[in-house]
Amino acid sequence: MQIPGLYIHIPFCHQKCNYCNFYSIGSVDDLSRFIKVLLKELSLYNQKLNSFDTIYIGGGTPSVLSIQNLEDILAEIRKNYRIMAESELTIEVNPADIDATYLTSLRQLGVNRLNIGIQSFDDSILRFLGRRHNQQQAVYAIDASHTAGFDNIGLDLIYGVPGQTLMTWQETLSQALSFQPQHLSCYQLTLDADTPLGRQCNKGLFELPREGEQADFFMKTSEFWKMPAISTTRCPILPGVSYWFQGIIRNTGNIPPTSVSAHPPTPLCKESDGGTIVLSADISTTSKKTSCPSRDRNS
Ligand code: SF4
Fold this sequence. Notes:
Helices cover 36% and strands 18% of the residues. The protein has a single domain, classed as Aldolase class I (TIM Barrel). The chain starts with 5 loop residues before the first strand and ends with a helix. The protein is built from eleven helices and eight strands. The site of iron/sulfur cluster has 10 residues, from loops.
């Protein structure tokens, strides 16, 4: 029997990004209460499940957790379940949250893989998206992760953002690959009508790229797949796919099934002998999109 992976969703962020329709709350006021419930739920599920081959802590923003929070969660997991030897233990982090001390502590807790929400190395794109970090913090986050000893790092990027050109997207891709990440996820921006950017788009304050332009972004990204920088990096598994199809534990009763993963359920994935790249045509987790996803449909 195939051993499942354990996904834990941390549904809190310090603030909501302008495009985000993931299940997360833009406040950490209830975090302590949530941790108590999570620890209890972890102990209850051991009647049904006993082993996991990987652990993935996603969100939301798991880096809102203190090291003590994480220590408590991991202790509860290890107390109740058998974790396979050499398991990947991943946590998603926001560049705005992490520093050398935090990263070193993660390593000491046994975290051996990071997924960093870079999204862009372009400050104007980051501001448009409402991200809390800037380009300098993005670079620092990756450098500090390497210094702390992480040799398995995934980076998330977003393309198809208004104001982004093929040239600036190429620069962001090149910069991402210069860090030799083990995993690169590139998501196309689409907007849910209930997000701040979705509402602005519906009011005509900006337009998303045309479908043809979106295709150009996608093809440009695909070209990078063939580049040596990605093909020589190492990625033993494709972690996201494991959780997209096998999400096992929801940590509270009020998280909808679509939030088991913070990323879309149907990415286009390619895996080589070396690196892995995940391309997605849709960053949203639901089908309720704004009425202006593309200028082609309005013209
Ligand atoms: S995109 Fe990520 S960091 Fe931003 S609000 Fe959504 S879950 Fe939080």
